[in-house]
């Protein structure tokens, strides 16, 4: 079995002391895999990513990265450790150029290292290179997502957290982004992805975790879930737990 | 910046440089005073406009710079020592004041700077041995530059004018570096900034401290210009006026302070004939502006363009 690079151990977390969103959540993600996190709206999927990225401090339980406890570590420190996060929605600074967006992505790097890292990203994404001096907001939705991922890769993360990358993208572009993530995972980067576009995302993922009301309701290999005749029922109002 | 704007800027700079030659000494004095306040207000724009923090104590930093300059210039220190000392002292005081305030939350810096300004004012008024109390410090000598005396109104104007241009260039460079662009990131969306690892607290603190240093440097020019300082110009109300200048001009716009300073600092001098009515008219105008033009005066062209495009 692949080793667990990310672990949540009975994590309780929320946005205020009276509001518990993650309720003893226990889950893990394995090295070099795409772990897909799915579940109904408000289940706490984004909250899992935010907690993992140190934007939310767990009230109890333990979050581990490569076996080490990271509860309460700030995002900057986690970036340095090798975790990158692409939040939901638009993450670029639309009024800045593509190059300036990349430079901001490398703000935690030593200044001298930045040009080489940007070159590394541009070599991987020729389309970004073509648009390097354009304003970021003038790029297509797909290019913008690519740039967001590219910018996250600037720090050579070992774990990439990505929240609903397919939002606002045409089916073809969704495929492109998924192919990109698959390629990253195959090259060794662990991907933890939240995605509503379940059927497509499952095709590219190794494992699927279903979150319900802040708890893990289901943990299955992606291919198995994809061919489960209950899949439609599960994600069209039904409850995952009943099928588990 | 496009070519027409660069051209306009250069033309304005030349006009501004030539104008004092046709003015009486009071006019030159006002233009120099404008440059002095502009330094402090450029700095405040960094804190308020770019880092998004309310600061109500910019006059205190101006005062700290001015009192230091008064004391050191009278001791015969050269201006090239007095300037960096004032800047560094205000930078450090800014760090010390800002660090606890910014760690807590948003509005605390406003309260902390307000309290700080009141405290500094009281020290200026009560510590007579050092500050001269309400009598202030008279007879501050104008500095000289490489043996060239800046005693005359015009030479001192040009020295101040060049200095504010250099300061503006420095801030321009700062805001165009990746470091400066992080401010755009902070303003746009703190969540995005955090996901890139931008340390919001550290950046805000640094912006505030640099803003304070700008005021401290401005204070040196103030002391050397007026040649006499007392606590009154560094009262909390002066901080409020500077904050208004930032908001009126358009906070977070690079040239906002220029327009804001003209309106807030120079108009009162020119409109003195209105006497007490001036404040009422001015107050009303500011309120009206904040309601109908929250982006400040510099946002007018954009608004017009936007309306034109909507047709
Ligand atoms: N910043 C916040 N402050 C307070 N409550 C929040 C905040 N963000 C999310 N919540 C609440 O936490 C719960 C879980 O939100 P979360 O964003 O993790 O859900 P999700 O599973 O990602 O849902 P979606 O599929 O809609 O993105 C929701 O009830 C939401 O209203
Ligand atoms: Mg979500």
List the helices and strands and how they pair.
The complex is a heterodimer of chains A (244) and B (311).
Chain A: E1 4-13, E2 22-30, E3 34-38, H1 45-52, E4 60-65, E5 68-69, H2 75-81, E6 83-86, H3 98-105, H4 114-124, H5 126-130, H6 141-153, E7 159-163, H7 171-186, E8 190-194, H8 198-204, E9 207-212, E10 215-221, H9 222-226, H10 231-235, H11 240-243
Parallel strand pairs in A: 3-8, 3-9, 6-7, 7-8
Antiparallel strand pairs in A: 1-2, 1-4, 4-5, 9-10
Helix pairs in contact in A: 3-6, 6-7
Chain B: H1 3-18, H2 25-50, H3 58-74, H4 79-104, H5 108-126, H6 128-131, E1 144-145, E2 148-149, H7 153-176, H8 178-188, H9 190-195, H10 200-226, H11 236-249, H12 256-270, H13 276-292, H14 300-310
Antiparallel strand pairs in B: 1-2
Describe the fold and architecture.
The complex is a heterodimer of chains A (244) and B (311). Chain A is of the alpha/beta class. Chain A has a domain at 4-91 and 159-236: P-loop containing nucleotide triphosphate hydrolases (Rossmann fold, 3-Layer(aba) Sandwich). Chain A has helices spanning 45-52, 75-81, 98-105, 114-124, 126-130, 141-153, 171-186, 198-204, 222-226, 231-235, 240-243, and strands at residues 4-13, 22-30, 34-38, 60-65, 68-69, 83-86, 159-163, 190-194, 207-212, 215-221. A 6-stranded mixed beta sheet of chain A has the order 6-7-8-3-9-10, with helices on both faces. In chain A, strand 4 (60-65) and strand 5 (68-69) form a beta hairpin. The longest helix of chain A has 16 residues, at 171-186. Chain A is globular and about 45 Å long. Chain A starts with a strand and ends with a helix. The model of chain A is unreliable at 240-244 (pLDDT under 50). Chain B is mainly α and 311 residues long. Chain B has a domain at 3-17 and 28-129 and 149-237. Chain B is built from 14 helices and 2 strands. Chain B has helices at residues 3-18, 25-50, 58-74, 79-104, 108-126, 128-131, 153-176, 178-188, 190-195, 200-226, 236-249, 256-270, 276-292, 300-310; strands at 144-145, 148-149. Chain B has a two-stranded antiparallel ribbon. In chain B, helix 2 runs antiparallel to helix 10 (200-226) and helix 11 (236-249) packs across helix 12. The longest helix of chain B has 27 residues, at 200-226. Chain B is globular, with a radius of gyration of 19 Å. The two termini of chain B are 27 Å apart. The model of chain B has no long low-confidence stretch (mean pLDDT 87). Classes of the chains: A alpha/beta (244), B mainly alpha (311). The A-B interface holds A 53, 55, 74-76, 79-80, 85-87, 91, 93, 95-96, 100, 103-108, 114, 151, 155 and B 178-179, 181-182, 184-185, 188, 191-192, 194-199. The structure holds adenosine-5'-triphosphate and magnesium ion (MG). Residues 45-46, 88, 163, 194 of chain A line the site of magnesium ion (MG). Magnesium ion binds next to helix 1 of chain A.
């Amino acid at each position: 079995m692949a080793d667990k690079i990310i672990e949540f151990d009975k994590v309780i977390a929320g946005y205020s002391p009276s509001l518990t969103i993650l309720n003893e959540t226990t889950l893990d993600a394995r090295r070099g895999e795409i772990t897909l996190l799915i579940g109904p709206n408000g289940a706490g999927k984004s909250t899992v990513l935010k907690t993992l990225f140190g934007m939310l401090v767990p009230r109890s339980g333990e979050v581990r990265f490569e076996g080490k406890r990271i509860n309460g570590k700030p995002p900057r420190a986690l970036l340095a450790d090798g975790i990158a996060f692409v939040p939901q929605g638009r993450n670029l600074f639309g009024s800045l150029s593509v190059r300036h967006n990349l430079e901001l992505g490398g703000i935690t790097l030593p200044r001298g290292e930045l040009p080489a890292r940007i070159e590394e990203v541009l070599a991987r994404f020729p389309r970004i290179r073509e648009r390097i001096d354009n304003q970021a907001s003038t790029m297509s939705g797909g290019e913008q997502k690519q740039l967001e991922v590219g910018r996250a890769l600037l720090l050579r993360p070992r774990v990439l957290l990505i929240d609903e990358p397919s939002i606002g993208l045409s089916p073809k572009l969704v495929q492109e982004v998924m192919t990109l993530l698959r390629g990253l995972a195959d090259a060794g980067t662990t991907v933890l992805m939240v995605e509503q576009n379940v059927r497509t995302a499952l095709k590219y993922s190794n494992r699927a975790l279903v979150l319900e009301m802040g708890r893990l309701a289901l943990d299955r290999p992606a291919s198995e879930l994809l061919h489960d005749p209950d899949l439609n029922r599960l994600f069209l109002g039904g409850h995952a737990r009943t099928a588990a | 910046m496009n070519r027409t704007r660069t051209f306009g800027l250069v033309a304005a700079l030349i006009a501004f440089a030539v104008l004092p030659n046709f003015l009486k000494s009071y006019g030159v004095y006002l233009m120099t005073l404008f440059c002095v306040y502009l330094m402090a207000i450029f700095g405040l724009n960094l804190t308020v406009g770019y880092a998004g923090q309310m600061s109500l104590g910019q006059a205190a930093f101006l005062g700290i710079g001015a009192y230091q300059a008064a004391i050191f210039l009278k001791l015969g220190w050269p201006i090239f020592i007095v300037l960096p000392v004032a800047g560094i002292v205000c930078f450090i005081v800014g760090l010390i004041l800002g660090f606890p305030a910014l760690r807590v939350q948003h509005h605390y810096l406003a309260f902390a700077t307000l309290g700080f300004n009141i405290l500094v004012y009281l020290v200026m008024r009560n510590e007579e041995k050092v500050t001269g109390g309400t009598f202030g410090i008279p007879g501050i000598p104008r500095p000289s530059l490489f043996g060239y005396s800046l005693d005359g109104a015009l030479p001192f104007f040009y020295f101040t004018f060049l200095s504010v241009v250099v300061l503006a260039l420095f801030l321009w460079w700062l805001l165009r570096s990746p470091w400066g662009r992080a401010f755009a990131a902070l303003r746009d969306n703190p969540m995005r900034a955090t996901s890139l690892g931008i340390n919001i607290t550290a950046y805000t603190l640094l912006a505030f401290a640099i803003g304070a240093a700008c005021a401290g440097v401005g204070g040196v020019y103030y002391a050397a210009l007026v040649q006499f300082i007392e606590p009154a110009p560094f009262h909390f109300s002066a901080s409020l006026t500077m904050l208004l200048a930032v908001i009126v001009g358009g906070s977070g716009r690079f040239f906002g302070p220029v327009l804001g300073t003209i309106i807030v600092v120079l108009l009162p001098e020119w409109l003195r004939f209105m006497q007490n009515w001036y404040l009422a008219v001015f107050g009303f105008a500011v309120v009206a502006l904040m309601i109908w033009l929250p982006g400040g005066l510099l946002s007018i062209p954009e608004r017009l363009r936007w309306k034109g495009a909507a047709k």
